[in-house]
Amino acid sequence: MRKKVGFAAAMTLLGLALLSTRYYMVDLPVWHFFGGGGGPDPVTLHLQGEFVESNLGAAEDPAGALTVRMIAQQFVFVPQCIVVPAGVPVRFRITSADAVHKLSFLGTNYGLEAVPGAVSEATFTFAKAGEFKIPCYEFCGAGHYAMRGQLEVVARDQFATLPPGERRSCEPR
Amino acid sequence: MSHASQAARVRTGVRLLGTLLLLLATTLLLSDSSALKENAEPPVRIPSNVAWTGETLATISKGDAFRGLLLARRCNHCHGEEGFSAVPGFPNLAGEDRLSFWKQMQDFRFGKRTSPVMQGIAEGFSARAAADLAAYFAMLPTASDAQDNRVFPHAMTDPSRASMAIRLIVFGDGQRGIPPCQSCHGPVSYVKGAPPLGAQNGEYLEQQLEHFSNGNRANDINVRMRSIARQLTAEEKTAVSEYYGAGLGPGVTSR
């Protein structure tokens, strides 16, 4: 009898452990149920808050720290191309307008998940200059495999000489 | 002329001069402060007043197609009796997606999308009237029949561009981050606000792609269509537009 109870308890624990790895299916709803969230509403990102389109891209605060704000949506990242200086910590703030997306900076160890209704934040330091592709790494729908952004890491002194408009993003205008 | 009236005239003159000086000073001050503001923060740009909230969707779904039929008498002259325009530069409205139609009407109404003709017309339609029209146009069939005299499918000027169009519509271009057209415009999957393109005029589509890429049209939510259009070459824009305009686009055109 005791063995059976122990076995059942162990199985329950194992099941819970497996479930807890399904972050978006289990943890996130639970977190929301207990009052988590409070992030931007995915359908009104363009109307107010920090993710309005004129505020997207890289922005420097007076102290010189760099923050990159991005929206991931089906099936483009906005802005699609960003420039950051090499060897400087860069803060990324990302949200999603629809499904869960994941930025994966190819050629580096960095990745960041974009979740609707929440802002994901991380600070990355890109050691060497170069161009990195940012494919979406979380299946997000029919156009998922063609969803790809670009990150251009330039030398620090070269970044300082860029005009303000090109520092925000490197999209062709 | 009496001495008193002359004094009154001088006083009026001084008062006028004072007012003018005051006005000048305020203008200078105002222009100065606006210049300062511009340096501090980029102005907030709202691409469209429409957001796909539950209320918006409820408003659109309450549209009455019969009221729309009566209202559509204003649209028929340019967009055709059957929703197919005689002028290839004007969009066809037959089988148009309700949400897309309603959003464009609101954007015209609030000046978020510019058009010398449509802005004036859209100002005359309330949100409810636009929903009625949307319901009506969504109902119009896109399949051709023996009686209609539409000019819709226009042959491609260069049929050899078809393979380029098919590649973009079905696969997109992953290297440049261009998603396939059919992943948002159907029939593979749909995104709110993305209209079906299977019965749309090619010339109109090409104009709009051009406007999206050079920023003349900027009413797409979260820069979605602008990001895509500015990556397309001129030849690709022509190929895709003409392919859809030739009635060759994939899938159903009305839902």
Describe the structure in your own words.
The complex is a heterodimer of chains A (173) and B (255). Chain A has helices at residues 2-21, 23-33, 156-161, 164-168, and strands spanning 57-60, 66-73, 76-78, 81-85, 89-96, 101-104, 111-114, 120-125, 130-135, 148-154. By secondary structure, chain A is of the alpha+beta class. Chain A has two domains: 2-33, no CATH class; 42-168, Immunoglobulin-like (Sandwich), CATH 2.60.40.420. In chain A, strands 1, 2, 3, 5 and 8 form a five-stranded mixed sheet that branches. Chain A has a three-stranded mixed sheet with strand order 4-10-9. Chain A has a two-stranded antiparallel sheet with strand order 6-7. In chain A, β1 and β2 (66-73) form a beta hairpin. Chain A is elongated, with a radius of gyration of 20 Å. By secondary structure, chain B is an all-alpha fold. Among the domains of chain B are: 54-139, Orthogonal Bundle (Cytochrome Bc1 Complex, Chain D, domain 2), CATH 1.10.760.10; 159-245, Cytochrome c-like domain (Cytochrome Bc1 Complex, Chain D, domain 2, Orthogonal Bundle). Helix content of chain B is 51%, strand content 0%. Chain B is built from twelve helices and no strands. Chain B has helices at residues 3-40, 54-61, 65-71, 76-79, 98-109, 118-122, 127-139, 162-170, 182-185, 202-214, 224-229, 234-245. In chain B, α3 crosses α7 (127-139), α8 (162-170) crosses α12 and α10 (202-214) runs antiparallel to α12 (234-245). The longest helix of chain B is centred in the first third of the chain and has 38 residues, at 3-40. Chain B is elongated, with a radius of gyration of 25 Å. Mean pLDDT of chain B is 86; it is low at 32-40.
Q: Any chance you could write out the topology, listing elements then pairs?
A:
The complex is a heterodimer of chains A (173) and B (255).
Chain A: H1 2-21, H2 23-33, E1 57-60, E2 66-73, E3 76-78, E4 81-85, E5 89-96, E6 101-104, E7 111-114, E8 120-125, E9 130-135, E10 148-154, H3 156-161, H4 164-168
Parallel strand pairs in A: 2-5, 4-10
Antiparallel strand pairs in A: 1-2, 2-3, 5-8, 6-7, 9-10
Chain B: H1 3-40, H2 54-61, H3 65-71, H4 76-79, H5 98-109, H6 118-122, H7 127-139, H8 162-170, H9 182-185, H10 202-214, H11 224-229, H12 234-245
Helix pairs in contact in B: 3-7, 5-7, 8-12, 10-12
